[in-house]
Design the sequence.
């Protein structure tokens, strides 16, 4: 189990104040990843990661750049077929410097774009940036094993593996009455709703793409 927290400023490059938001949110996820922590700011994007080391303990630190510096990723999960995906991408000219499935997921995205998610077999939630396409992808696995929550506030898209870091960094948020009704009836809040107004859970098997040039969120 790892934790991710990140922010895209839809209007300008990341300021120190926005970096501080990601640093605080990432620190609040320490219990999900006690083995390492890092925050990376580049252009309009700031990525934070808390790591639980499982695969490639020495080489799998995140956020992780591709070897050609075209893309970067913060990833939580495990992809079981990453070695087969890597063999296919090696034939397409992609290169690898680690034995981590994280690098496999990043290179898959740089090779196939958002369609790469259909090729991944496993449990995951991640945020990846392709600077050549000027695009950011947020993705969650088909069964929703790995959580991902997000909100748009003050001109920024902010996401987290858990609700509480969002509340403590860009909140507070009002409670959503319809979500409370759902919880009292079913003992959970179905996605994409959460207990808070303006905060959503990315449903299982869904994606968010952000065009950094047009600021469009799909």
Sequence:
């Amino acid at each position: 189990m790892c934790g991710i927290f990140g922010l895209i400023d839809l209007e300008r490059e990341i300021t120190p104040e926005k970096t501080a938001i990601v640093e605080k949110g990432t620190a609040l996820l320490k219990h999900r990843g006690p083995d390492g922590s890092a925050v990376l700011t580049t252009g309009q994007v700031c990525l934070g990661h808390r790591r639980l080391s499982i695969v490639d303990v020495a080489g799998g630190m995140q956020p992780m750049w591709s070897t050609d510096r075209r893309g970067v990723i913060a990833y939580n999960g495990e992809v079981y077929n990453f070695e087969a995906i890597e063999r296919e991408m090696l034939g397409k000219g992609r290169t690898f410097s680690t034995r981590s499935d994280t690098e496999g997921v990043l290179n898959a995205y740089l090779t196939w774009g958002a369609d790469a998610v259909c090729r991944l077999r496993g449990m995951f939630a991640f945020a990846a940036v392709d600077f050549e396409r000027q695009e950011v992808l947020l993705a969650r696995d088909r069964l929703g094993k790995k959580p991902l929550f997000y909100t748009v506030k003050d001109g920024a898209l902010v996401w987290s593996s858990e609700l509480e870091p969002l509340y403590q960094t860009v909140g507070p948020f009002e409670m959503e009455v319809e979500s409370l009704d759902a919880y009292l009836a079913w003992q959970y809040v179905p996605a994409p709703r959460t207990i808070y107004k303006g905060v959503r859970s990315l449903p299982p098997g869904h994606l968010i793409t952000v065009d950094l040039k047009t600021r469009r969120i799909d």
In short: The mean pLDDT is 93. The radius of gyration is 17 Å.
